[in-house]
Design a protein that fits this description.
- By secondary structure, the protein is α+β, with helices and mostly antiparallel strands.
- A 3-stranded antiparallel beta sheet has the order 1-2-3.
């Protein structure tokens, strides 16, 4: 009996408080808030899982109402359709790229070509190329007639001029280049041609142009291509058993690279330092 009295008293108290609250809001001319709904489980119910509150980081990244652009972009944006749309090169970008490849450019000196394209002494002109070339690098297809020019000749020159423009420290006095050579083995897996194993030789090096006014763009580009071809040829000559021995291949690759760059050095361009790395990877 006492338990029922306590329950009735509690219910009556809740009703009175609710009526008083409604009356107070009505007197102030403000709509009363909607009553809260209890989430406590009954005898045969299961409590619904709570939605976790956003972390401080998530809260900071939430755009304010009416915001038109994100300030911070996730690395996943690189794969988003929106990012690809924003980075799609324009017709003006493409025409600019074509204009950077004048007739007979391969026979120009590296100094003349670099100054004509990336004048590192002109702040406005130097930076004006950054966004168009970024869009082209992201979205120009590999089978485009200008792709090779963009990814080789223009890339080499841009790096060389960047060092001069920013007046970098002595540790980065020389421009760098590098590449990757691969041996790939394919097999038949349930009727499909699948890569089952690969040997990968990675290399990078710093080079010095000793005579920018005498070295032509053709000679410089051919120097880099000869290094790429030489490392790939070295890998192609190896047996599969040799390629599986990573430690021995590491040493052999370093020796090959050292001999290769020394044989290719001229009185106009040479490699001054570098590094190599080899690994074998089996997928099946």
């Amino acid at each position: 009996m006492k338990r029922k009295n306590w329950i009735l008293a509690g219910v009556l108290l809740v009703v009175l408080v609710s009526l008083a609250t409604v009356a107070a809001y009505a007197a102030a001319g403000t709509p009363a808030p909607a009553p809260a709904v209890s989430t406590a489980p009954g005898p045969t119910e299961t409590a619904a899982p709570k939605t976790p509150s956003p972390s401080p980081a998530q809260t900071r990244l939430t755009a304010p109402a009416g915001a038109s652009a994100r300030v911070i972009e996730s690395s996943r944006d690189w794969d988003d359709a929106d990012y690809k749309t924003r980075m799609q090169y324009t017709q003006a970008d493409y025409e600019l790229l074509a204009s950077l490849r004048p007739e007979g450019y391969l026979d120009m000196s590296v100094e003349a070509f670099n100054r004509a394209v990336f004048d590192w002494t002109n702040e406005e002109r130097y930076h004006a190329l950054e966004e168009p070339l970024m869009r082209l690098s992201c979205t120009l297809k590999e089978d485009d007639p200008l792709y090779s020019f963009l990814s080789t000749t223009l890339s080499y020159s841009r790096h060389e001029c960047s060092l001069k423009h920013y007046n970098t420290c002595v540790r980065e006095e020389y421009p760098s280049n590098g590449g990757t050579a691969k041996y790939e083995k394919y097999g038949d897996i349930y009727g499909d041609k699948v890569l089952v194993a690969s040997g990968c030789a990675e290399y990078s090096y710093h080079y010095r142009i000793k005579d920018e006014s005498g070295l032509t763009v053709r000679e410089r580009d051919a120097f880099f291509q000869a290094i790429d071809d030489g490392v790939q040829s070295f890998l192609d000559r190896q047996t599969e058993e040799a390629l599986k021995n990573e430690k021995a291949m590491d040493t052999a690759l370093a020796d090959e690279m050292d001999a290769l760059v020394k044989s290719l050095a001229t009185d106009r361009i040479e490699v001054v330092s570098g590094s190599t790395y080899y690994y074998w990877e089996r997928m099946w």
